[in-house]
Amino acid sequence: MARKDTEQYQSYEKDAFDNPPEGPVGVHRGNRPMIVRVTPFIIVLVAAVAAGVLFWSIFSGEAANMFNRRSEQTQTTAQTSQGSSSSSADESASGTASQSSQSATAGESTSAEGTPSQTPSASESAQSTPEESQQVNTNAQIAVINGTGVSGYANDRAGVLQNQGFTNVSAANPDATTVLPAQTVVYYQNEADLATAQQVANALGIATVEQSTSIGTPIQVVLMQ
């Protein structure tokens, strides 16, 4: 027969394992402090807030940049449209002005062709005006009459004319037949002597030039005070 096991728990001597501590032992732990339990939630909350702020900053900056870019594109498009409109207006105005000038030129040409010119030709002018009246005759006979009573004044004026190129100049005092005018005057006999008389008046600084058929020389200068 098999031997009957008669050894029991009380048969062994007690050791350190026979007196376990009170309370949970091993994986069983007691209640942790409140700060320890709350700390993970605080960390998660702070991290979430930081992530939200960072996301908001990035998103708001990008949104602002996108808005600015759209505004710049809109302004550029508006300016381009304005420039195109101005160019079109300028081209239209230029075309209108060109058409107007062409029409005016065409009208003037038509008018010029349809209406004969009324301006006299050079040959007609030459025929109507004597050629002699257009020229200064420095060889014409010129008499300088001294009506001032100042001795030598007629000779002085005659010398001025000679220095101007007149070759046939004489000085004299008035005689009984000479009619003295109220002011200094240059007389000329014929229309052919008008240019010469005017040149004499310019040389002596005389303002009055008159025609007279009663003088004895082609040009007569009467000096008065």
UniProtKB/TrEMBL annotation:
Q: Which residues form the LytR/CpsA/Psr regulator C-terminal domain?
A: 140-223
Q: InterPro entries under this entry?
A: LytR/CpsA/Psr_C, LytR/CpsA/Psr_CW_biosynth
The portions of this protein that span the membrane are 38-59
- Tell me one Pfam family matched here: LytR_C
Give the span(s) annotated as Disordered. 1-30, 70-137
Compositional bias (Polar residues): 116-137
Q: Where is the composition biased (Low complexity)?
A: 73-115
State the source organism's domain of life: Bacteria
The biased composition feature labelled Basic and acidic residues covers 1-17
Keywords, ordered alphabetically: Membrane, Transmembrane, Transmembrane helix
In Swiss-Prot or TrEMBL terms, this protein is called Cell wall integrity and stress response protein 1
| Species for this entry | Bifidobacterium pseudolongum subsp. globosum
